[in-house]
Amino acid sequence: MRGRAFLQCLSVILILLVSFSFTAEGGEDDFFSKIRINPIKSNKRAPDFSLTDLNGKEVEIKKFKGKVIFLNFWATWCGPCKEEMPSLEVLHRQFKEKNFVLLTISVDYEGIKPVQEFINKHQYTFPVLLDP
Questions:
Q1: Could you give the maximum distance between any two Cα atoms of the chain, in Å?
Q2: Residue 126 in contact with residue 92, Cβ under 8 Å?
Q3: In degrees rounded to 5, what are phi and psi of residue 43?
Q4: Contact by Cβ (8 Å): 100, 132
Q5: Whole-model pTM?
Q6: DSSP secondary structure string, 58-93?
Q7: How many CB atoms lie within 10 A of CB 5?
């Protein structure tokens, strides 16, 4: 009787292992293998663009020519985006006087109000641009 219970238990474990291996197949590794990343050439210019900041002022990227530009795309509904904001604030404060600019670009589809409320609530000082 014990031998039979052992075999049944072993069968269940094997079935679970096989089914988990099929569900894991095509996961994150497969996703990243399909992404094509083209390296940026060091002498290639970034495309010119302009967006509006939270004060309604137009900000042109060409204004920052010669500086290191860190673009961060985010939204108030994005959990991981909100988690990284304190680190971005530290980065901004530490390097804003150097040859570095952090531009955060909100892709919120609900407009400026939730973005402004979020930034004010957390007292972030980095530039926030709006991508309509």
A1: 80
A2: yes
A3: -100, 10
A4: no
A5: 0.66
A6: EEEGGGGTTSEEEEEEE-TT-HHHHHHHHHHHHHHH
A7: 9
25 Cβ partners below 8 Å, 6+ apart? none
> Where is 104: in which H helix or E strand?
strand 100-106
- Structural contact between residues 74 and 104, judged by C-beta atoms closer than 8 angstroms: yes
DSSP class of 27: S
| Cβ–Cβ under 8 Å, residues 108 and 78 | no
DSSP code for 56:
S
Q: What is the pLDDT of residue 3?
A: 54
Token pair listed for 82: 């909100």
Distance CA 19, CA 14 (A): 9
pLDDT tens across the length of the chain (132 residues): 555 555 555 555 555 444 444 444 444 455 446 656 566 666 667 778 899 999 999 999 999 988 888 999 999 999 999 999 999 999 999 998 998 999 999 999 888 999 999 999 999 999 999 997
